[in-house]
Amino acid sequence: MDKNIFVENDRHIMEINSAGVVLAYYRNKYSLTLEQVCDGICSVSKLLRMEKGIRCVDSLTSSQLLERIGKTADQFEQLLNDEDYGLWRARESIRKSIQQRKYGKVKEDLASYRTMKNNAPNLHEQFCLYQEVMMKAERLRSVGRVHYVPQDEQAELCETALRALHLTKPAFVFCGSGERQLYTSTEIELILLVVHYGTYCTDTQTEDMLLNLFRHVDYYYLERERQKIGYLILEELIELAQKLQDWDKELDYIDKGIDFVVQGREITGVARLHFLKAQALQRQCGAALAEDNVFRKEIQRECLMAYSVCEVFGDVCLMEAIKRFCEEELKWQITRLEM
User: Fold this and answer.
1) Residue 214, helix vs strand vs coil
2) How many angstroms separate the CA atoms of 304 and 298, rounded?
């Protein structure tokens, strides 16, 4: 694929867009319609022109189209004009500030970003709302570790997340299966936040929706994003099983999570999953734990696996939690390796 080819059309020089070629390839490979890929992001005509190699959308639109089929924009060279380059730099600066938790600067930069000219207002507003939601979610997670999170704050987060989601998924509802849908990672993360903090459908409907999202990510997404987003979905499924006190289903989702993680190149989260499995086994065994040596040994193995991974990655906080669990629930000193 020659990315330096130019085509002259209607007396304009238009860039051959490698992202468009990739979109066309995977859309045909997965037997997807133009409407399925571009719905809520851009018009069918724009996507068709893009697939033909004509640069007709900005970099944010291009990246969101690629995400609908599980691909990321950083895999492809993108030629940006001055206006688009300015928007791209502003987004990268905001993302960096989010990672550094410079939330005051993020708010200032988002206000400035909203004044910048763009050709896809819904997508750019979704980007801004998504960053606001992520800041709210981080605050609620921090508060939730120590105090109860007020319902009005949870409701505010859900309302903002839904407003962002409906900019590209206006017909999305939580309580209906609907037809086959494609999702960007942004859309999925917004859905997961609403699932986590809201009460928009029954537990059965929530589980069905999460499983559908997981199948979508497992099928379409490439390895790095597949592992990151898939893990977030499995976390919600595990938490739902815990809420229902269905320990068999919880163990099933934990095992699915462990298999899912170890298939990838990274093992981020595997220690937590093994520790969750130890806790689930302990709950499942209940009062019989003291007399059931087989169960006890299995729980110890899961704790030891989690503890060893934590040592490798230097996760001191989780190591302390595992150690405390072993001492209080198993009456066992894990650091002595009494296996």
Assistant:
1) helix
2) 10
CB-based contact 154:196 (threshold 8 Å): no
Tell me the C-alpha distance between 157 and 194, whole Å. Answer: 8
Candidates 220, 279, 227, 223; CA nearest to 68 is 220
The long-range contacts involving 9-14, CB below 8 angstroms and separated by at least 24 positions, are 9/54, 14/53, 14/54, 14/55, 14/56
> Are 188 and 233 spatial neighbours (Cβ–Cβ below 8 Å)?
yes
The per-residue pLDDT for range 225-283, each reduced to its tens digit, is 888 899 999 999 999 999 999 999 999 999 999 998 888 777 778 999 999 999 999 88
The angle, 0 to 180 degrees and rounded to 10, between the axes of the packed helices 247-262 and 223-243 is 170
d(CA 114, CA 55): 23
Residue 9's beta-bridge partner residues? 12
Name the residue type at position 188. I
Sorted by where each begins, the domain ranges of the chain are 6-79, 269-339
The mean pLDDT of 125-134, rounded to a whole number, is 96
Centre a 10 Å sphere on the Cβ of residue 297 and count the other Cβ atoms it contains: 11
User: What is the pTM for the complete model shown?
Assistant: 0.84
CATH superfamily entry for domain 6-79: lambda repressor-like DNA-binding domains (1.10.260.40)
Predicted local distance difference test score (pLDDT) of residue 147: 57
